[in-house]
Design goal:
Chain lengths: 333, 557
């Protein structure tokens, strides 16, 4: 077994044990239900803002978008306004497509070396599809959870729940988002383990969030369908948090605290990890700038003063030869 | 004929490529610096010319690279400095999720199967050190967090692999966050330069360009000599005596193109193409274009050294345009030159307020997209002329050619010039066949020798890196009988002939403006029987114009 995912798996199991033992054996509900979640949220917010701020402090000296379509040039040549934006509007659409639909990943191809020395490139949509499924189901799950922090629960959340559970299988009804989330995250994990190239460059830091999210999803699904927790007590606890009257109701099962602890760890881990790609994509200079450098000058705040070899120096070096060759000179011999 | 010493046949080479990575992790797999895969180190003389740090003789295969004593401090300081100056660097160090979408997009990975050539791993070579010295997670968790200490071996690995990236940006097209390996390689090379680790194939052109005005080190009188030679050649073929002008004050337009096209075949034919076009425009429309011997280089190997060196070399263009008092600048066919002109020039050396917003005086077209930089690509310029019917063309003169077009990396992904060259080719040739969609336009493959890697000692690297491109050419050769690979880059023209010879024999290489001037009917020309290369022009009378529509290889079929 590869040490990289072994470490990550052990870390997540250890986290589970910490929370489980902490609540079941030591009765540290306060710690796992209130203190740690609050610290995690503060860490997340402060860490997130600081990281983005740190990025933003570094200037963008050059306007270097990757151009993925026809430039704007002559009026009769069809300009690719989104893939090679010239205006801010084009950039915004490019960014929206990138952020909401993972447009660049959609292009993904797989290179095959075939018989007869032929190379082919086949459209590879699975990574794109499962990434999209993963992020959107995570988003839906997240939004669904807002019902725990709002009283009364707004109508829109109730509708979302209805849509999410439209399959109406079992009781309580299966919510699609949770299932899709788990399936997608397992796909992303298996892909890292099975594809030898991906395994080769994956780090422990790539497996850890996957195992953690699997932990979150599994503990959540367990609570909903198998080991029932006192849902009224949960809501009491969460409402206590958002109204700044923290309070631990009796008799919520330990699996709830495990779930919350996993989420807390994910939140606190977020700003220090690759998960910051969430914010990074907005600041990526190859995507968020128009390709209009020849029309509008981009300013580099630290544009260095440099030593150049002037024409005068050049002519001094070659004057005689230039005159001999009949080339015009500024200063005669 | 190029000799491919010590290399297997192309089929053997292909069958040896294996994408399966080794069992040991990349951090635990030592890098072996192998002959044929790297370029010779920069000579002290080249490094000294621009007062770059630590000029010395050193040998890559030696254990001792004669690094300055405090090399580690210099590199880490350099990283800190660059993290503060380049948002790209900082963001790209932090946000990669290692999804692997970039992995098999790199021509060097496809051609070598070396896993450290997967862009994600090549970036990790640098990122691992970044984590170790600049992030908390790396400091605390070390190797588990993907961090490793900067050692001499790490530095050597950087040098080996950052000079196995041609900064083509193909990976950045596929990256969901737009992480640009070129940008990371640029940073890596800047850092390496801080401790005097560069390659001579970049160091020498940079030094030459600084002193004599061009990469080839052609001095002004020799430059004129070469152009005189071309003038004679052109006269022999066309019967027309062209009169190129040099350093002429008060000309309308300053023309700048890479010196590689003046120095070696088949680029020289493209240069003759420019000369004929200039002559045609002068005779027909009175357009006054001048060359410069001082700004006699379009390319800029400074881009492959550091942003400061790039700026120092690029400064000549505006300085010369100002001195000569021209209206605007016209740039020739070149790859990385246009990345510099399009994405860096005005920022570095602008504003060019002493020039006029470029207008084509013959057609009246305003080049709106170049109104600040005041530099127009000759392909944009010629496409505009053709569209307005200002060139008399006889495309049948190119009937012996079945042409495909290679999108050079930089005009493709650092500019987006796709349809202008295709428009021109279709107007001057009757047989044009694009390569498959995944190998052209923004997904085009590098020639394998870009970013200063076009030396001869790294031929194996070049042939491996050029494989995906060559393989796509082979596809259109087999399918359509393509015999001519056209491109708009001087490095392409220099490196494709051996690449084609190895992988796709019988395919020749040309610039677009060679094709244009084969077809151009010049006032006062004699009955042409041969083209600029001295090859027979197909006899027009034997060709039935309708024949094309019935031929099986007619493009519309």
């Amino acid at each position: 077994m590869n040490e990289k995912y072994l470490y990550s798996l052990i870390a997540v199991i250890a986290l589970f044990l910490v929370a489980y033992v902490g609540v079941e054996a030591l009765g540290l509900q306060w710690l796992f239900g209130i203190i740690i979640p609050c610290l995690a949220i503060i860490t997340f917010i402060v860490g997130f803002v600081m990281r983005v701020n740190d990025w933003a402090r570094s200037p963008v000296p050059f306007r270097i978008p990757s151009t993925c379509g026809q430039q704007k040039s002559l009026p009769w040549i069809k300009h690719s306004k989104i893939d090679n934006p010239f205006s801010t509007g084009g950039v915004i659409i490019r960014m929206i497509l990138e952020i909401l639909l993972f447009r660049s990943l959609f292009r993904n191809t797989k290179c095959n070396m075939n018989e007869g020395a032929r190379i082919s490139y086949v459209w590879e949509k699975w990574l794109w599809l499962f990434s999209l499924a993963f992020h959107y189901s995570f988003l839906v799950v997240l939004v669904r959870h807002l019902r725990f922090f709002l009283e009364p629960v707004p109508v829109c959340f109730q509708i979302l729940d209805k849509i999410d559970g439209f399959l109406q299988i079992g009781l309580p009804g299966v919510l699609i988002s949770g299932v899709v989330l788990l399936a997608a995250v397992i796909f992303l994990l298996l892909r890292r383990i099975i594809i030898s190239q991906v395994r080769y460059f994956s780090l422990a830091a790539d497996f850890f969030p996957l195992f953690l999210i699997i932990g979150i999803a599994v503990s959540g699904i367990m609570m909903r369908y198998f080991i029932k927790v006192d849902i009224v007590g949960v809501k009491e606890l969460t409402m206590g948090l958002v109204t700044f009257h923290p309070h631990i109701p009796e008799g919520i099962g330990a699996v709830f605290y495990v779930h919350v602890f996993f989420v807390s760890v994910l939140l606190a881990y977020f700003p220090f990890s690759k998960l910051m790609h969430l914010a990074g994509i907005f600041l990526s200079p190859t995507r968020n700038l128009p390709n209009n450098n020849r029309a509008y000058r981009h300013i580099n705040p630290w544009n260095p003063k440099v030593k150049v070899h002037t024409y005068e120096e050049y002519e001094d070096d070659f004057r005689e030869k230039m005159i001999e060759a009949g080339l015009p000179v500024d200063k005669e011999l | 004929m190029t000799e491919f010493k010590g290399l297997p046949t192309s089929d053997e080479y292909f069958s040896k490529i294996d994408f399966k990575p080794p069992k040991t992790g990349w951090m635990d797999t030592p890098t072996v610096i192998r002959d044929g895969m790297y370029c010779f180190p920069a000579k002290p003389k080249s490094v000294k010319t621009l007062d770059l740090p630590f000029p010395r003789e050193w040998v890559p295969s030696d254990d001792d690279w004669k690094l300055p004593e405090n090399w580690k401090e210099i590199i880490l300081e350099g990283m800190k400095d660059r993290l503060e100056r380049f948002r790209t660097f900082k963001v790209f160090m932090d946000i990669c999720v290692r999804c692997g979408a970039c992995a098999d997009k790199c021509h060097f990975f496809i051609g070598t199967g070396d896993p450290k050539n997967m862009p994600v791993v090549r970036a990790e070579l640098l990122r691992s050190v970044y984590r170790n010295d600049f992030t908390k997670a790396g400091k605390i968790l070390g190797k588990i967090a993907g961090a490793r200490e900067l050692t001499v071996d790490v530095l050597k690995e950087w040098w080996y692999y950052f000079f196995q990236c041609s900064e083509c940006r193909r990976c950045s097209v596929f990256c969901p966050y737009g992480i640009d390996m070129a940008e990371i390689t640029i940073m890596g090379r800047e850092l390496l330069n801080l401790v005097g680790l560069n390659i001579e194939w970049i160091g020498a052109p940079v030094a030459f360009c600084y002193k004599t005005g061009n990469h080839m080190g052609i001095q002004p009188h020799a430059f004129k000599d070469m152009m005189d030679f071309f003038t004679d050649e052109i006269e022999e073929v066309t019967g027309v005596r062209v009169e190129p002008q040099f350093n002429k004050k008060g000309a309308d337009i300053l023309f700048i193109t890479p010196s590689g096209d003046i120095f070696g075949d088949p680029g020289t034919y493209t240069t003759m193409g420019y000369m004929l076009l200039h002559h045609y425009l002068k005779v027909k429309y009175g357009l006054d274009i001048t060359w410069s011997t001082y700004a006699s280089e379009g390319g800029n190997f400074g881009l492959f050294t550091s942003n400061e060196v790039m700026k120092r070399l690029n400064a000549k263009m505006y300085a010369e345009a100002k001195r000569l008092g021209v209206k605007w600048i016209l740039g020739g066919e070149c790859g990385h030159m246009w990345r510099v002109v399009n994405q860096y020039m005005a920022t570095m050396n602008g504003p060019a307020d002493f020039l006029e917003e470029p207008v084509n005086p013959i057609t009246g077209t305003k080049f709106e997209n170049a109104k600040d930089t005041k530099m127009v690509h000759i392909v944009e310029f010629t496409a505009d002329l053709i569209k307005h019917g200002k060139l008399d063309l006889d495309p049948s003169r190119n009937d012996n050619l079945k042409v495909t077009f290679h999108d050079s990396c930089n005009p493709a992904r650092g500019m987006g010039m796709f349809d202008e060259p295709r428009y021109i080719i279709k107007k001057v040739c009757k047989h044009f066949y694009d390569m498959p969609r995944n190998c052209i336009r923004e997904q085009t493959f590098c020639c394998g020798s870009g970013s200063g890697l076009n030396a001869s000692e790294d031929m194996e690297l070049r042939l491996a890196g050029g494989l995906p491109r060559a393989n796509a050419v082979k596809y259109v050769q087999e399918k359509h009988g393509v015999n001519m690979l056209s491109c708009i880059c001087a490095i392409d023209r220099a490196v494709f002939p051996p690449l084609m010879e190895y992988w796709v024999p019988e395919v020749d290489v040309t610039g677009i403006h060679e094709l244009v001037c084969n077809a151009l009917i010049i006032p006062g020309e004699k009955e042409k029987t041969v083209n600029l290369r001295g090859e027979d022009i197909p006899n027009k009378d034997e060709m039935d114009p309708d024949e094309y529509f019935t031929r099986p290889d007619f493009p519309g079929r």
